[in-house]
């Protein structure tokens, strides 16, 4: 176990609290004008999947578990879960639906992901920071509309909804940030 300050916790980190391991789902730092800055963390208990919310002062020390983190290639999904392969050893790992969660919509065949395992069991997944997706439907492009600060909703081919600039039409391949599903730009050929 390694002690780290609470403000350094990120999605996918594993922390130990009261002798149990938790996977960090979301971490936000709050800096109010007055008072002590805090870090609010949503976590999932690894042993039984129970979700827990915790708040620490940003400078408080938290026990971070040492886990094995390696790059894996996503293969396919079936009734057992999501199957990944270690590209060096060709060893395959099945990851449960609980661990993958909402990220399943962004998984594509052959995608390189970082899997964190603890004692041989996958406990969290980290997708690449940016992925390329195609827009299935959106409002029509308006002639003369420049890239202003107004965004319009778009539905991607994987079913997710994102906001895109007004000049982007259906069929366009775009780059999105996997953490907050924000539009980053068009795909560069």
From TrEMBL:
InterPro entries membership: Elong-fact-P_C, NA-bd_OB-fold, Rib_uL2_dom2, Transl_elong_fac_P/YeiP, Transl_elong_KOW-like, Transl_elong_P/YeiP_cen, Transl_elong_P/YeiP_CS, Transl_elongation_fac_P
Single GO biological process annotation from the record: peptide biosynthetic process
UniProt keyword Electron transport, yes or no: no
Main location: cytoplasm
Family stated for the protein in its record: Belongs to the elongation factor P family.
Family matches, as PANTHER family: ELONGATION FACTOR P, TRANSLATION ELONGATION FACTOR KOW-LIKE DOMAIN-CONTAINING PROTEIN
Protein name, as recorded: Elongation factor P
Source organism (scientific name): Tabrizicola oligotrophica
Gene it is expressed from: efp
């Amino acid at each position: 176990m390694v002690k780290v300050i609470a403000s350094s916790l990120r999605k996918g980190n594993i922390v130990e609290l009261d002798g149990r391991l938790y996977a960090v789902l979301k971490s936000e730092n709050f800096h109010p004008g007055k008072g002590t800055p805090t870090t609010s963390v949503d976590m999932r208990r690894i042993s039984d999947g129970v979700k827990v919310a915790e708040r620490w002062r940003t400078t408080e020390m938290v026990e971070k578990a040492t886990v094995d983190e390696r790059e894996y290639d996503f293969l396919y999904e079936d009734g057992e879960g999501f199957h990944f392969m270690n590209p060096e050893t060709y060893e395959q790992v099945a990851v449960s639906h609980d661990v993958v969660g909402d990220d399943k919509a962004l998984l594509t065949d052959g995608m390189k992901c970082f899997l964190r395992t603890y004692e041989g069991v996958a406990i969290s997944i980290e997708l690449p920071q940016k992925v390329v997706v195609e827009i299935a439907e959106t409002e029509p492009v308006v002639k003369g509309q420049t890239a202003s600060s107004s965004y319009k909703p778009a539905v991607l081919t994987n079913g997710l909804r994102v906001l895109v600039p007004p000049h982007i039409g259906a069929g366009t391949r775009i780059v999105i940030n996997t953490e907050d599903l924000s539009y980053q730009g068009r795909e560069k050929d």
